[in-house]
Write a sequence for this structure.
């Protein structure tokens, strides 16, 4: 319960700790004909925004499944270096095509989740941005079906990011460790 509360607090302060920049959020092109069913299953995090206040461990995964009401169940896990244990958070995503809103706890605000590109079998690129008066706070995630994807897939995601959100540079990314020392959640989710 304590780990869940910590993840909840981190989710609440997400926009406080994200990457700030001047200007307003852009509206990048998103995935045409997004297929939530094909998006379901396990994804390994390849990279994320460096300033992200959550997902600060290693071996991060996101798992998606379709709920009976058509929403997506979101189950995120990470291995905490500090506690040497696997932490998790379960949420719900409501999607209108590739434009989603996700919420992890009843008391937390929902956060946007824009699926910019998934090829469904190898790599996915996700972007979120919040306007904050004269500034913006944005996040990026690169996800893969494999722990360590082929560089060509990572390069494809980076190319799409550069094309659609040119002000976001790879200097803002933190590359996630996924490897032999990882411990992953293996129970039912």
């Amino acid at each position: 319960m304590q780990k869940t509360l910590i993840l909840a607090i981190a989710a609440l302060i997400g926009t406080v700790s994200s990457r700030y920049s001047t200007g307003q959020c852009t509206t990048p092109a998103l995935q045409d004909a997004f297929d939530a069913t094909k998006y379901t299953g396990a994804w390994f995090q390849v990279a994320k925004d460096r300033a992200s206040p959550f997902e600060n461990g290693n071996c991060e995964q996101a798992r998606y499944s379709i709920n009976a009401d058509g929403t997506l169940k979101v189950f995120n896990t990470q291995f905490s270096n500090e506690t040497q244990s696997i932490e998790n958070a379960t949420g719900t995503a409501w999607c209108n095509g590739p434009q989603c809103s996700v919420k992890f706890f009843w008391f937390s605000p929902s956060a946007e989740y824009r699926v910019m590109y998934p090829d469904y079998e190898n790599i996915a690129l996700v972007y979120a941005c919040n306007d904050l008066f004269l500034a913006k706070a944005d996040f990026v995630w690169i996800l893969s079906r494999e722990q360590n994807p082929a560089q060509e897939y990572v390069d494809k995601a980076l190319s799409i990011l550069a094309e659609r959100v040119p002000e976001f540079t790879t200097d803002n990314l933190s590359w996630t460790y996924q490897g032999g020392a990882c411990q992953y959640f293996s129970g039912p989710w």
